[in-house]
Each structure stands twice: as C-alpha cells, then as structure tokens.
User: What shape does this take?
Amino acid sequence: MTDAELETRFHQVRETFFPRSRKARGYTVRRVVAPPDSPSDVRGTCGDGEITVDSDAVEYGGDLLDALLIHELAHIASLWHGQRWRDAMRQALSRAREIQREGLAEVLLWELVSHPPR
Ligand SMILES: [Zn+2]
Assistant: This one.
C-alpha cells in the first residue's frame, strides 16, 4: 500500500466511522517502522493532529488496518482506554454492523475486550 493509498483509506475510515467529529478532520496519518525494542503490542499512536500506524499493519491492510485506524481515531476522544474511548469504539462497532462489515466488527469487539478500562 502506498502512502497515498493509506491516506485515502484513512479518509474513508474517518468519514465512515467518525463523520461528526470535526476534530478528527484535522488529523493526518503516517506509517512508522517500529524500533526493534518497542513493545510488540503497540501498533499505532494518536498524537497532536497525527495518527501513526505500524508499517506491518499497513501492509496487512483489510479489517485489521481499519480497526487500528479506528482504535487510534477513538483516542481523539480520550488518551486512555477509558469510558470516552470505549464509547467511540462502541459507536464505530455498531456502525460496522450497520454497514455489514462483520469481520471489522469482530476485530473492533476484540479491541474492546483486550483493552479493559482502567
Ligand atoms: Zn489505544
């Protein structure tokens, strides 16, 4: 996937799952190669106006990449995996079911299960 394709994908995901978030529209996406010593469970970040995604996840594409983009976009609402992040994820989850993206819905549900609130 080229950087331009990733950008297009990011825009599609943002418009489909966060159509009402004006804040999200100010965000860009960038792929990063994880340093060898980084924790293996970190596949993306949500920083100041920028979301980064692991280059392997970009290559994998599909529902996994979309779920990762959604996970990071949901962090615009909250830095942590607390209630606001979970609400944003649940909204995206019901949207995925609505548009019959069952595979994506499953990954989103797994994201919720594997990031319990603290
Ligand atoms: Zn997270």
